[in-house]
Amino acid sequence: MSVVIFLIFAIVAVVCGINVVVQTHPISSAVSLVGVMGSLAILYLLLGAEFLAAAQVIVYAGAIMVLFVFVIMLLNAGAEAKRGRSFMVQLLGVPLLMALLGLLAYFVQRLYPPATAVHFGGFTHGTAQDVGRALFTTYVLPFEVTSILILIAIVGAIVLARKELE
Amino acid sequence: MDSFIVISLIKIVVVFAVLMTTLAYLQWVERKVIAHIQVRPGPYRVGPHGLLQPLADVIKLVTKEDMLPPYVNRPLYLAAPFLAITMSLLSISVIPFGPTIDVAGYRTWMQLTDLNIGVLFVLAVSSMGVYGIALAGWSSNNKYALLGGLRSSAQMISYELPLSMAIAAPLLVSNTLSLRELVERQSGSILHWNVLHGPFPQIFSFVIFVIAAFAETNRVPFDLPEAENELVAGFHTEYSSMKFASFFMAEYANMITVSCMATLLFLGGWVAPWPAEYGSSLVPVAIFALAGVVALYHGAHPGRRRDRITLPVFGVVFLILAGIFLLPRVQEWLIPLFWFAAKTGSILFLYMWIRGTLPRFRYDQLMGFAWKFLFPVAVLNLLVTGFLVAWFS
Amino acid sequence: MMNEVPISWFLTLSAVLFALGVAGFLFRRNIITVFMSIELMLNAVNLSFITFSYQLNQVNGHLFAFFVMVVAAAEAAVGLAIILTVFKNRGTLNIDDVNSMKN
Question: What residues of B are in contact with residue A74 (Cβ under 8 Å)?
Fold first, then answer.
């Protein structure tokens, strides 16, 4: 059951990821990226991270990507023009990439033999209470610093994007 | 394990059927309420008192020509209504309608599933609903649709902030994210509901939540992006037949979800205003009996000739319903369901009442209201709630 | 056996998504697509953090992923504002054409 869910959503994530990189129009890339984030949220649930899964959908897929979609719609710059590539790159590009990924996957499998098995309910410390407790006791300094970071980002974004006063 | 699957499937079918019927008849109720506010009868020809009007509307929408304009971005055009309606209907799966009940020997919740993060799930699903509108506006390849879609999505994400702050305040008081536990902590009487109980009665949060919910669901007075006389029809200009019906249903489903959240967070869910020992179970009986008696009385001297038959029939139906509420077998699940439906219905009535009464905001007034007034007030409310909860515990 | 997923599969998926993000970052010309590849890389890293948090049975990995999300949000806001300014001044979203400081 967990294996089936993992395979389905991992394949969806990889296909959407490939789509992000391959599509010419940025809006299709943006919608595919939302698909990646959604399937990753389901995989977080499989890993017991229920608060993070909800935060991923609310913050990443529901706010950051909406911002991307807005900017793409407002700028309306159109699809990317195809550039000429050398024949060698077109012939060997994808097979070399697959070979590199295969090598990477082989070494990851070698270093991490499947000792820990992941299943629903294997990790129970991912609730909002646990994350909140850790956030406000052990990690309270990074928490405060990131709140200042967000303030800086808000001020920066407003200053950059407003109309220049003539 | 399989009894769990069978019971869940039965619950899904029941909830889906009730939700679809409620969506259809909510539109009838809205048209009648707005009509009576404007001193006119509303739909009354199709069936007795217009009760078959939703059926006529469904038949009309389904049999209309389903156009696929050639200039649209086809994958996004087809995906947008699908996304909108899916996200709207998904949130109903975590809403609890009542306490645990016994059905043919199996104990089960009156809820499809209870998540530990129920409130976050509803917020997440409503954030994803913005995509349906933005992509519909973009893919229609039409400047009015694009403007309407952009404005509508900007409005929805701007009001998500005060909405989330207004939701966070009763969560501080109740200390849980699960919707079922939220209601169970408000059990007792009306003095235990979150809106009147706790170190800081959540009246301000309730008002902020209702205002932000009106803007989230694109309803008057915040419905400029889809008003007919402003932007043609906003983001659903290029949609016809079933796809248009999807957007329509998505809007009403969002309304129902938001009203259910308001009752669960603030008004105590299925908890009766005063405990059942003091006779609160007789309130539905009294209401239905009164409705039956009024219908029978007006049936004796009707205004129209056909009401000589329809009004007594309604009167008898109401009296039978009043009798059903007296049976002890069904009382344990019907009374909580009645209170839940009554509270949700009052908030939906508030939606329709405001639609018939208030004019709409201009777009810059709307956005200024969100960022310059509602958001600071919501943050202040959250701060005061947090301070008082920490002080008194 | 059908109920247990080996943990190395999650790490492999994270590596694959990260590699796709790097490929998009290096090969695409449109500045917004480059930015989205960065977000893809950040998501892959989040998956890694949460996977290790599962293996070590601690909640700290979740906290790291949470902070990565927050920083990504701040970065997206400022980055998109910069992109809007670049588009307003240069009229193009092609990073090859934004080179008037060269030579």
Answer: 150
